[in-house]
Amino acid sequence: MNEHRSRITVTVVLIVSLALLGGVAGFYCRSQGPMFDRDRRAQSGPQMAAAIQELVDAWDHVQMASAKVDTVLDAAGGLEGGTKGEGRYDFLKDNGHTSIHFKLTNMLRIKSPEEGENVEYWTAERLIFVTDGAVLYRFVEQSKHKTVTKVEYDPDDILQVGGRLLLDALQRDNRLSLMPDQTLQGKDVYVIEAESLADGSKTIHYFDKATGIRLKMAELDQSGGDYLTITLSELDLSPQFEPDHFTMTPSEGVEWVDETSGTP
Question: Model confidence over 205-230: pLDDT tens digits?
């Protein structure tokens, strides 16, 4: 039974990593926060354009930030269960590049048929994504196995929380609607609903008006409930980072995979 459980655990952790990479690291995901009163009309056109420009301008004035990250995923790699994640997201702008350090520890609650019974158990994984704007390091710890993969940087491969790149991607692939303003964590936020042009799925994004930082997004499932939510909180706009915070180097006990043409 333990061997069977171990195989399921490794498979589920891998699948959840990919799900969170697609949702957490991607520019956008199918999401929605609290259900809106549809009698309160959404705005688009000039109002949307003005809001987006305001968010870009606010983001351009922020040089660095650190925030607590919480994720909730109503799945465990295709099995019944759920996933909760906690971590931090840091970024620093310098000479036109944005360095990012994003770490997340996920706890997976898995329900699986085992010897004729439904067994519920917990497992964990640790993820760290680091980029200096040129290369991306992906650290994954699963079942005591640690791997770092170094690849060429692609913004789609790590969580983006603001700026022209994120907002352009939202506009390119979605039909956007500006919903009534809300207050989140004591901050005034723009609420943007994104309906995918590809499949009609929806995403709700909550952007802090003062910083342009996306404080929350949540994914809507087919029944209208939240499937995946990602929240940034405890925002610090003047954090202190160690000199090596936005890079990784090989270390003992960690498998290192370099998919670039350079060296660590």
Answer: 999 999 999 999 988 777 767 778 89
253 within a domain of the structure (yes/no): yes
The CA-based diameter of the chain, rounded to the nearest angstrom, is 60
Q: Do the bridges between strand 117-131 and strand 135-142 make them parallel or antiparallel, or are there none, so unpaired?
A: antiparallel
Q: Is 24 helix (H, G, I), strand (E, B) or coil?
A: helix
Query: What domain range is 240 assigned to?
Result: 2-258
Domain of 160, CATH number, reads 2.50.20.10
Q: What whole-number distance in Å separates Cα of residue 244 and Cα of residue 264?
A: 13
- Strand extents, DSSP E, the chain: 64-73, 80-94, 97-114, 117-131, 135-142, 145-152, 174-184, 187-196, 202-208, 214-220, 226-236, 255-258
DSSP 157: G
* Closest by CA position to 214, among listed 166, 178, 176, 161: 161
The two three-digit tokens of residue 226, written as one number: 């939240």
Residue type, 195: E
Residue 55 domain-assigned?
yes
pLDDT in tens, 137-193: 999 988 778 999 999 999 888 899 999 999 998 988 889 999 999 999 999 999 999
β 145-152/255-258 pair status: parallel
C-alpha span between 61 and 241 (Å, rounded)? 19
Report the SS3 class of residue 260. coil
Question: With a threshold of 0.85, does the pTM exceed it?
Answer: no
Checking if the pLDDT of 28 tops 80, the result is: no
Structure tokens at 200: 């009609």
What tokens were used for 213? 């930082």
